[in-house]
Amino acid sequence: MQGLLPGQLIDGFELLECLHYGGMAALWRVSRAGLTAPAIMKIPLLGDDPAAIVGFEVEQMILPLLQGPHVPRLIAAGGFEAQPYIVMEMLQGQSLRARLEHAPLPTDEVAAIGARVAEALHDLHQQQVIHHDLKPSNIMFREDGTAVLIDFGLARHDRLPDLLAEQFRLPMGTGPYISPEQVLHNRTDTRSDLFALGVILYHLATGERPFGAPTSVRGLRRRLYEEPAPPRARRPDFPAWLQEIILHCLEVDPERRYATAAQLAFDLTHPESVVLTARAVAVQTQSPWTRWRRLLARLSARPTMRSTTQQLNRAPIVMAAVDLTQEWEALADALRTAARHVLQAAPEARLACVSVLRTHRIAIDEPLDAAGKHRHVQRLVQLQHWARPLALADGRVTFHVLEAPDPATAILDYARGNRIDHIVIGSRGASTLRRYLGSVSTQVVAQAECTVTVVKVPGAERASAKKK
């Protein structure tokens, strides 16, 4: 272990116990005066592999720039002039790798795990970082279930030099999880991480890796043209909606995958809204002729050269908060126009049409109205009717009726829980009572964590407010 022993001091940190000794680094539990929580030190193994040194340098550059609950908290770092190291919070619990021993898992657990990891990826991508080595051992979970991504030695940051791309020409990553574009040396696409997550979900769902465990470049190149066996071929009872999602992630062409991790997380948490295609019911892989066509198409494709920010801006999740009470028709056209403008500016955006069915706080609400019609179903039909003039393709629009006593709170909770990037909401005017109590749109503007466009009634000026 490079001569390191328990009790040794490195920049004031005492080495307590070696927890892991891998091919590229050793992990030690450490302590230091003033530390109030367990900490772990990562020390690179400076052997004959230059990738270990470069990867550690990359992680030292990127980790200090990351923040939030989905990455480990950095405590300290030491450079190569002495003993290089990184000290970070020690995450309690096991990695996702432990769950592979119990695969195949129940499909609801697979979806729940996938949604949490997708949320972590979206947060990482928003910080302009692509992980490029997503695998079960690099995914941890906090006590509250929050997914934490670790090991950024192969990552790429938009605003930092890509040392790995500059110095190496072989595909970098872990064989089973490398995306087709990584095989072709393209490290600029966030959707590479979605491919890796698709591999993980496939493994958790079926107990097998979709592309095996190749150890050569030739083996890696097979994923440029070969499709994995559909999960339903291995589990006949596998739900069509989850097969649709997994195979959507595993598309060879990144343009055919989910546009963002947030959109993937949305589908995993709203299975009823997943649009089913031929992927959903497939039970056989493609013919040899199809494999050949896929290979030619992939080799001739031009790689995407957009930054992570540009990719996310092309594919936001937009929420239209539609008031469908008796007064709603006065706002319908204006709200649609505003939503259309937002969607036109983002060609891969998805629209979540949301309406709140107000309920009593104490009394029990009747599901049927005076005419005997189901209130929830009737509201859903009205919502679909509102969106029809937008003429959005299947998969770009979903419909959600929320039941809650407080519409503003329901809208805000939905936006936070589904990683909404932009809210379009109507305002029906300003009466004295509304000014005193605060309108729904005012509360949403004041408390939303994303951009909000407020649409006034026809003839009034449209206003927008931005919050982050």
How many DSSP-defined strands? 16
User: Mind describing the biggest β-sheet?
Assistant: 6 strands, antiparallel
Weakly predicted, low-confidence segments:
432-437
Helix percentage range? 25-40%
Overall outline: globular
Strand order of the largest sheet: 1-2-3-4-6-5
Mean pLDDT: 88
Strand content: 15-25%
Helix-strand makeup class = alpha/beta
The Rg value, from CA coordinates, equals 25 Å
Q: Alpha-carbon distance between the termini? A: 46 Å
User: In DSSP terms, counting alpha (H) and pi (I) runs of 4 or more, how many helices?
Assistant: 17
3D structure, described in words:
- The chain is globular, with a radius of gyration of 25 Å.
- The chain has 17 helices and 16 strands.
- Residues 432-437 have low confidence and may be disordered.
- Helix 5 crosses helix 8 and helix 15 packs parallel to helix 17 (440-447).
- Helices cover 35% and strands 17% of the residues.
- It has helices spanning 50-62, 107-126, 163-167, 180-183, 191-206, 217-221, 231-234, 240-249, 261-269, 278-281, 288-300, 308-314, 329-344, 375-387, 407-417, 432-437, 440-447, and strands spanning 9-10, 13-21, 25-31, 39-44, 74-78, 85-89, 129-130, 139-141, 147-149, 156-157, 317-321, 350-358, 397-404, 422-427, 451-456, 463-465.
- The strands form four sheets. The chain has a six-stranded antiparallel sheet with strand order 1-2-3-4-6-5. Strands 13-12-11-14-15-16 form a six-stranded mixed sheet, with helices on both faces. Strands 7-10 form a two-stranded antiparallel sheet.
- By secondary structure, the protein is α/β, with parallel strands linked by helices.
